[in-house]
Amino acid sequence: MWKKILNSPAFLLACVTVFIATVLLSPKTKSLIEAAANFTSPHAMPQSQEWTIASVADGDTITVKRDGETKKIRFCGIDAIEKQQKLGPQAKSYLQSLIDKGDGAVMVIPIEQDKYGRTVAEVFVKPRPGTPGYRSEEEIFLNGEMVRAGFARHIPNSDNCPNELVIEQSQQMAIANRTGVWNDYNVVPP
After folding, report:
1. Where in the chain is the domain with CATH 2.40.50.90?
2. What top-level class would CATH report for the domain 49-183?
3. How far apart are CA 101 and CA 78, in angstroms?
4. Disulfide check for 151: which of 60, 91, 123, 187 has CB 3.0–4.6 Å away?
């Protein structure tokens, strides 16, 4: 008789219902759900802003302009090779080449201000239609691309970067492919 009860669909349904009710009514589950809702809600995500490129300083710093305003942008979550270091000029040139795939505009998602007054941000370029290697609706995530190309390193747990996981994965690809700084163990870290 017990075997029949334990194998019945009604018993299984009752067990699942009790389990779900227990999980959903748990204070810990409620706090996790609230935290997830706060993280993904529109008010928690920074707003993107379209700017025009004024100049490229190095592999992780650009100057942008809009409506008479100029702003220095430092890419969050990464540290690029400095201009005077080995591969430094190539890092700057590579960043410029990524920007040149677009129409001169970048989408900036500001995160915070650094101690030098620069806006720390994630930066994206929308490639021009027909750019080889990109679909028209795709954006180039400059922070991640600089790391993937081996011209910058991921800074773990830095700057509250929303796409930090993408940057971290980009570094793993660069290491696996021995790209840029990962190809020469004598290169001094940025």
Report:
1. 49-183
2. mainly beta
3. 21
4. 91
